[in-house]
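Example with several molecule types.
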Amino acid sequence: MRDMVPVLEARGTRVPSAPFVRFSTLWVQVTGTWCNLQCVHCLNASGPRDPWLKPLCAERVRHAIRESEALGVKDIYFTGGEPFLHREILLLLGFALAAAPTTVLTNGAAISEATIAALASLARDAPYSLEIRVSLDDVDPEGNDRVRGRGAWARAVRTIRRLHAHGLLPIVAATEDPGGEGQVGPGLYGRLRDFLVGLGIDKPRVKILPLFPVGRLASRGGDLLSEEMLDGFDRARLQCAEARVVADGGVYACPILAGLPGARLSAGDLEESFRPAPLSHPGCVTCYETGMTCRNA
Amino acid sequence: MTASVNALHPVAAYRRIAVFGGVYSNALALEATLEDARRREVEAVFCLGDMGGFGPHPDRVFPLLRAGAVLSLQGNYDESLASGRDDCGCGYTDPRDNHFARISYAYTFAHTSAENKAWLGSLPRHRRVQLGGSGVLMCHGSPRGVNEFLWESTTPNGLLRRLFRDHAADVILCTHTGIKWHRALPEGRHLVNVGAIGRPENDGSPRVWYTLLTAGAELEVEFVPVRYDQSMLARQMDAEGLPPEFSETIRTGWWTTCLESLPARERARGRF
Ligand SMILES: [Fe+2]
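Resulting C-alpha cells for the full complex:
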C-alpha cells in the first residue's frame, strides 16, 4: 500500500468513481507503449522510441493469466503498443488461450506469413476462440496513412488478407471521431464492410471505436466527469466495473489509464485492485458519453 | 453435489424434463417441440425465455405456452417488451446487428397484446429444480446477467467453476445465444446451453433444437432436433413485411443477421 500513488485531486468537488462489480476481462499491456507505428490519435502515445511504459516480461504475463483464471476471468486481451513486437507473443497467446478466449490487438504491420500460420495453428488447437483485431482507419490508403503513418495501410491490408486466407476471421477496428464531420458510425462502418467484401472476405467483421481525447490527442481533453453528470447513470455499465489491466508497474482500471500517475489500483496483485476506480481522466467522459466497450462485442 | 442448497425452500424434483429457449415468435416450431416432448414422456417442460422477436405474429405463441403448461423464465426480450423499453436489450454493439434488431423489436412490440406483455412481466428470472441428485439452476443468458452470452468457444472452465460456486448449482441451463452446447466438468457439474427453437442454429439446416435432461447415475443430456413447416413460417414472415434476411435464415438455416456477436469459432462455421 505504501507505494500507491494518490488519486488525482478533484477540481473542488469529489472525484466520482466506478464500482467494481465483477472481474470479467483481463487486459495485458504486453508491450507497454512500444510500437512500430506512431499514430496521431494513439490512446497512449505509443511509438518506436523510448516507450514511456515498458513492455512486460513473459513471467509477469503468465502470472497475471494464472491469477485471472483462478478468479474466473471470462476473456483476455493483449494490447500495447504493438503486441507482435514482443519476442514471446506466440507463447503468451498460447498460454492465455489455455485459460480463456483471447484477443490480440495489432496494427498488422509486423506480422509475417510464418507468424500468421502459427496463429492459425494456435486457433485450431485452442479450447477457446482466438480473435485478431487489426486496426485500419480508412478504406483509402491516403486517409489512413495520414493518421497511422506512411505504408501502414498496405501492410495492414496485406495482413488482413493473409489472416482471412488462413481462416482466422480478423476483426477490423477503426477509430472514428464522434465530434467529427459527417455521419458517425454507419458511414465508416459501411465503407469498411464494403471494402472487406471487395477483398473477397465473406465474413466481414468491423468494430468502430470512438476517438478519445487522450494520449497524442490529450490537448483536446475537456471536462472531467462529476457526480452531477453521473446522476441517474448506471456506472456498472462502464467497462472499468469489470475489467482490469496489467501493465508495467501495476494494475489499472482500463487500457487508456494504464501507466498514468494516480490511476494505479494496485502494485501488481489483481485481487487487490478489485475496488472502485476513480473516474478522474478526460477519457472517462468518452466512455460515459459513447457507452463504448473496448471488447469485441 | 449441492443438492441441499435450497433446503429452506424445497424445489420441485423431476427425473426427466424438456427445456428450450428462444421461441422468437416461431409458433410452428413451438407446436412441434411441445408435441415431440410430450411423446417422450417428460414430467415438465421449461422455457428459458425470449418468446418474441424475429418471427411473425408474436401473440400466437402465448396460448401454446399456456396450454402446454410450459414453466417459463423471462428473457431479455420479454423484459424489454414488458417494461416498454425502446430496444430489445440483446446487447449488440454492431450497427448492422442493431439495425435488424430494431426492426424486429418494433414489429414485435406493436403486435404483442398488453395482456401478453403483462404476462411476460410476471415471469421469474431464474428457476431452481432438482433433477435426481443434481441441483439445477435455470437462467436466460447466464446466472449473473440476462443478456450475457455464453458461447461454447468463449466460456472458459474457470468462469464456469466460479458460476457453479457463486450460484450454488450443479447444473446450469441457459439460452440467449441461439446455439446449443454442453460441457461436463468434474464432480457432476454441467453447463448446458439449450439452444433455441425459434431460429435454426447457423448450420445450414432449417431444423431447430431443444434439450432433454434425464436424471441417472450420470445426468443425461440429449439435444433433440425438431422439424416443422419452415416454408410456411417463412411465407408468414414475408407476408408480414419482415426483412427477407430473416425468412432466408428460416428457409436455409444460415444466419444472415446478429452475426457480430458470434465469436470467431462459431462464426467460422456459418456461411456469412
Ligand atoms: Fe436473449
